[in-house]
Amino acid sequence: MDQRDADALLEEIEALGSKLGDARSAIATRIIGQDRVVELALAAMLSGGHALLMGLPGLGKTLLVETLSSVMGLTGNRIQFTPDLMPSDILGSEVLETAADGGRAFRYIEGPIFSQLLMADEINRASPRTQSALLQAMQEREVTIAGQTRPLPRPFHVLATQNPIEQEGTYPLPEAQLDRFLVKIDVEYPDRETERGIILATTGTAQEEVRQVFDAEALIAAQDVVRRMPVGDGVVDAILDLVRACRPSGEDAPEAVRKHVAWGPGPRAAQALMLLARAQALLEGRLAPDLDDVARLAEPVLSHRMALSFAARAEGVVLSDIIAEVASRVTHTARAA
């Protein structure tokens, strides 16, 4: 990259950082607290990916998705996943119509997946057959119906929600689908002051209106900027070392991973870390990601791409502790190099 291109990219990053600040302020008028959750959701959208929101009912997951749709200026649809939901309820279907002259022809009716921001509410309540309807859409941004491939609108993002404790009548997401989520976002209980602000803001007669900051074209342009952000060799090596060290069969895996992890992350995890580290830096007004970004994003990116062995679960081993230990070791080694 020559100096002129570097200067142009610098101007784009600075302008986009200011606009993202406006977007976060707009989101904050509706979403009180949950700064890290909002940050990760925005980072996933800036990276062009999908996010899985894990949290108990009533913590604002649905409201967050609706607010993001308004602030980012995207057309949004919501699907409430239930055991009787069929793939055609998501993708759409062909219907046989009779014209006025008596002729018959099939007409395709688009399903709710043809939107720019799809909220898949309680995604694990649908059957595996219905869940699989999202696989092609999430990876290739297109769907194949009746032998014809139909592109989805751009940009296309899936924000799915899942209740982590109520498992009766649910179907665990297969590993292939989990891997298509760029990041898993844990939505925790708010602290006391945040919860106080929530009840005061939501039990009155007026509700804050959110303003649109982005539109589809602006978001696509922002995603292009993220992909053009420079990344230092040290950060790239740290990402590779971290992902490879979390594979129990890998030669770089520490003892804790070899002993307790059943399977580890694939190449998509490294891709996700690279994109999200750039987006994280952009959200914080920095021009390039650093090792701290890699360490902070390790758990959201890796936790749904790994699994503990049965023995480790029986012993009470916590996966997030293993990821934190590996991330700390990798970033410490990278700084010392």
TrEMBL record:
Gene3D superfamilies: Magnesium chelatase subunit I, C-Terminal domain, P-loop containing nucleotide triphosphate hydrolases. Residues 47-191 form the AAA+ ATPase domain. It comes from the Bacteria. The keyword Signal does not apply. One of its GO terms (molecular function) is ATP binding. This is MoxR-like ATPase. Keywords: ATP-binding, Nucleotide-binding. The keyword ATP-binding applies. InterPro entries: AAA+_ATPase, ATPase_AAA-3, CbbQ/NirQ/NorQ/GpvN, ChlI/MoxR_AAA_lid, P-loop_NTPase. Belongs to the MoxR family.
